[in-house]
Design a protein that fits this description.
TIM Barrel, 12% strand
Amino acid sequence: MTRFTYLGGIALLALATLGLSVALSPWWWLAAGPLLALTGLGVYDLLQRDHSILRNYPVVGHLRFLMEEIRPEIQQYFIERNTDGRPFDREVRSLVYQRAKATEAEQPFGTEREVYEVGYEHFVHAMCPLPTPEQPPRVRIGGPDCRQPYDMALLNVSAMSFGSLSSNAILALNSGAARGGFAHDTGEGGLSEYHLRPGGDLVWEIGTGYFGCRTDDGGFDESKFAAKAANPAVRCVSLKLSQGAKPGLGGVLPGPKVNAEIASVRGVPQGVTVISPPAHKVFSTPVGLIEFLVRIRELSDGKPVGFKLCVGSRRDVLAVCKAMIEVGTAPDFIIVDGSEGGTGAAPLEFLDHIGTPLTEGLITLHNALVGTGLRDRVKIGASGKVSSGSDIVKRLIQGADYTNAARAMMFAVGCIQAQKCHTNLCPVGVATQDARRARALDVADKSERVEQFQRATVRSATQIMASIGVHDPDELRPHMLRRRVTPTEMRSYAELYEWLRPGELLAEPPEGWVHDWKAADPSRFTA
C-alpha cells in the first residue's frame, strides 16, 4: 500500500457519495461532506511546507500529532519506546523542535529533574553574574603551521554524510550553516553539490574509504584531494579515525541507497553496499598519522587539519602526543566523539559496550595535551548527544573548545526518530535517497529551523556562562561543574578527576600516568 492510497481512497469515496447525493438522496451529503473535507485536508497537506510527514502521509499523518496532544500516558507508551524497549530522547527532541521553530517558552512549575539523584549535575553560578554578550565567542582553529585559520562557532553541524542523509537534508543543513555562520562537517561520504551549493562553511571529513579523493583500488588520491580542498567553502579538513557509535568499524551505506549520484560522489559502484575499512591504508603508526596530517595540510594550502576519534586506550592517546613531539608539529584540532553519540546504524553490542564516553574521552585527551605541553597548539571539539546550551558549557568545562551536534541537527530538519534510516523509507525525507520521500523536506523552511536552533542554543550557552561569571570559554574551570555522588554529597569536577599541569608528563609524570606514559610508543598503536 503506497503512502497516498488512503488519500486516493478518500477522494474516490468523496466523489462517489457526492454523485449519490445528487442522483439518489441528499442524505448522502452526510457522508460526502466529511469525505470532501478530508480530501481538501489531504490536498492542503501535500502543498504545505511546514510538516514533512504530512507531505509524505497526507491525512493519516495527523494521527501522529494527535498522539502528541494526548500525552503523557499514551505518548509515554507509543512514542517514547522503540523496538528494543530503549527510551527515545523525548525531552531533547521537544527542546530542539521548540528552538528550531522559535517557539521556546519558559518552563512552569520548576525543574523536572530529581536534584538529589546520584549523578545529577549543576553549574556553580556567580553571586554577581555578568550580562550576556550580544555576540557569542568564537574559537580560532589553526596552529603555528596553519596558514588559513578558521574561527569556529561554539556549536556546529557534526559529521553526517550525503547518502546517509538525503540531498534536501544536506541542503537544509548547509543553508542553515550559511545563514548562521557556523560550520558543517560533511561526514565521510565525500563532497557533493549539496554541500557546496548553499555556500556554508565546510569541514571536509576524510574517512577510511577516502570517498571523494579515492583511487580505483580504495587508496588516497592526492591530486583529487588537492583539487577539492582548494574550494573556498572547505575551511578545515578532518581525518576520521573512528566514530563514537561504532569505534573499530567502518561506516556502512546499504546498497539500495547507493544510487548513481551517490556512487559518483563517492567513487564506488552503484547499488552495492559500501563498507568503509576499519582502519586507514596510508598509515599504521602514530608517527604515520601525524606525517599524513602534515601532507594533507600541504595539499590543502595550509588549511586547518585534524582528526576525529572515539578515545580508546589512554596509551594510544599518549603515543600520538609523543608522535607530535617527534615529528615537530601537531594537528590544528582533534574532535572527540563520545560512545554515546551516533545517528545511524551500528551493532547493538558496539553501541552499548565499545568506546569511551565523551566525558572521560575529553578529559583524557585534554590532560594528555596539557601534560605534553601541546594544548595551546591543538583545539578540541566535542561531539556526542550535544543538544542544549548546558551541554555546550559542560563540554567546555571538561576540556573542549567547541562542540558539534548531529542528532539534534537531524531533529531540527524534521527527524522524528522513526528508525527507518537503513530501509530508505524515512517518513520525513531526512535519511532516504527516495526522491519522492525527500521532496517532503522543504529546504527553505528547514534551513531556517537549523539556523534558529543553533542560534538559540548558543545563546543559552552564553547565558549560562554569564551566570557563572565568565564570558570567554577559556575562563571556565572544573570547579564550576558539580556532580552529586551520594544522596548527601556533591563534588566538583576539580575533585572528581585528575587535572595535569602544563608539561607535567615531560617533567615528572604523576603516579597514575607513569605506566601508560612509559609504555606509549609513537612507532605503534596498542595491539
